[in-house]
């Protein structure tokens, strides 16, 4: 594939690039970062880090190796940026579900049911899959996963506090511990889902988890 071909594919994205899509050297990037990271996430999610080659990423994103390296450094850098992109999208969805105009217990249950539904598709979770593949050897990934988990736990703890204030959750429970429990539930559902569990089976687990909060 020639540089001219890539330029034609990406010229539209470059024209519409945001101000933050400018490299440190002042040259506009020739691709839309969000689009590239979304495609890279799919590849890493499907194949794992070690089984993914840079050529796989180039083919999926339509961006040349040098352009990817110029922005992200190397394959590991692409992976780390893809995890951030995936986490931001996932957490935005969690915020929406937890802050929905429904009772606090319903909001938490809906958040867990979301994981039960998508877990039954056998895809697992990009973050969970990456954690199982690369930790504990990868210290940079470990730090990133911990940071993502802290964001999720903070949101879940706030939802638990709202439920306690509304009288639908046991007020004697420590909200941080409950939030960690719910995080374990969401990640556990994703792992179980990869073992060909039916959605109804995963929903039954959610029901038991919710009873533990009352």
Automatic annotation (TrEMBL):
<dbReference type="InterPro" id="IPR036271">
    <property type="entry name" value="Tet_transcr_reg_TetR-rel_C_sf"/>
</dbReference>
<keyword id="KW-0804">Transcription</keyword>
<dbReference type="Pfam" id="PF00440">
    <property type="entry name" value="TetR_N"/>
</dbReference>
<feature type="compositionally biased region" description="Polar residues">
    <location>
        <begin position="1"/>
        <end position="10"/>
    </location>
</feature>
<keyword id="KW-0238">DNA-binding</keyword>
<dbReference type="InterPro" id="IPR011075">
    <property type="entry name" value="TetR_C"/>
</dbReference>
<feature type="DNA-binding region" description="H-T-H motif">
    <location>
        <begin position="53"/>
        <end position="72"/>
    </location>
</feature>
<dbReference type="Pfam" id="PF16925">
    <property type="entry name" value="TetR_C_13"/>
</dbReference>
<feature type="domain" description="HTH tetR-type">
    <location>
        <begin position="30"/>
        <end position="90"/>
    </location>
</feature>
<protein>
    <submittedName>
        <fullName>TetR family transcriptional regulator</fullName>
    </submittedName>
</protein>
<dbReference type="InterPro" id="IPR001647">
    <property type="entry name" value="HTH_TetR"/>
</dbReference>
<dbReference type="InterPro" id="IPR009057">
    <property type="entry name" value="Homeodomain-like_sf"/>
</dbReference>
<feature type="region of interest" description="Disordered">
    <location>
        <begin position="1"/>
        <end position="29"/>
    </location>
</feature>
<keyword id="KW-0805">Transcription regulation</keyword>
<dbReference type="GO" id="GO:0003677">
    <property type="term" value="F:DNA binding"/>
</dbReference>
């Amino acid at each position: 594939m020639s540089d001219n071909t890539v330029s034609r594919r990406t010229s539209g994205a470059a024209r519409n690039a945001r101000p933050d899509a400018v490299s440190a050297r002042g040259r506009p990037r020739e691709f839309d970062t969000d689009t590239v990271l979304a495609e890279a996430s799919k590849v890493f999610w499907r194949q794992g880090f070690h089984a993914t080659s840079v050529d796989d990423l180039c083919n999926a994103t339509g961006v040349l190796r040098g352009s990817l390296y110029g922005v992200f450094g190397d394959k590991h850098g692409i992976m780390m940026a893809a995890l951030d992109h995936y986490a931001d999208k996932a957490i935005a969805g969690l915020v929406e579900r937890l802050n929905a105009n429904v009772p606090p217990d319903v909001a938490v249950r809906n958040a867990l049911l979301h994981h039960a539904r998508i877990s039954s598709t056998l895809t697992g979770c990009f973050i969970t899959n990456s954690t199982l593949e690369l930790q504990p050897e990868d210290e940079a990934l470990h730090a990133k996963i911990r940071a993502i988990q802290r964001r999720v736990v903070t949101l879940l703890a706030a939802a638990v506090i709202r439920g306690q204030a509304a009288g639908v959750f046991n007020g004697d429970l420590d909200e941080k511990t409950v939030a960690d429990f719910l995080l374990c539930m969401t990640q556990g559902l994703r792992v179980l889902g990869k073992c060909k569990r039916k959605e109804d089976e995963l929903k039954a687990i959610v029901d038991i988890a919710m009873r533990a909060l009352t």
